[in-house]
Design a protein that fits this description.
Length: 126
């Protein structure tokens, strides 16, 4: 799945110097195969035999510190001990050279998918 053209479109239409950012989890169901691509901190899970199985991971600074540093950025904690929320997103023009919109892509056999954003998964441990 190629999502970078979408990121370029967002960046080209940003008014001002910063703009916003967004995360994406997208799925393609092909028969009994599920293809999932995610950027940022939105997740997808599968339910198998009554159990939830996480199939995506959040793109967090401490997990991707080397990649951020390789792009010339740094991972620091802000006042109040709050780190940057994610290392991958669409938009976020001000720090785009340090983050990416390149997705992780996972292929799984499916029972059925559940998709939600961080508001659900922020309180749910899988």
């Amino acid at each position: 799945m190629k999502l970078q053209p979408t990121d370029i479109d967002i960046l080209e239409n940003v008014v001002g110097s910063r703009g916003g950012s967004t995360t994406v989890t997208t799925i393609l169901i092909d028969g009994k195969k599920l293809v999932v691509a995610n950027v940022g901190d939105s997740r997808a899970i599968l339910c198998r035999n009554g159990k939830a199985e996480g199939i995506t991971v959040d793109h967090r600074p401490l997990k991707e510190k080397k990649q951020v540093e390789d792009r010339g950025g740094c991972v620091v904690k802000l006042p109040g001990n709050i780190p940057r929320a994610m290392t991958r997103a669409f938009g976020d023009k001000k720090v785009k050279k340090h983050i990416t919109a390149k997705p992780d892509v996972v292929v799984k056999k499916i029972d059925f998918p559940v998709m939600a954003n961080y508001m659900m998964f922020g309180f749910l441990v899988i």
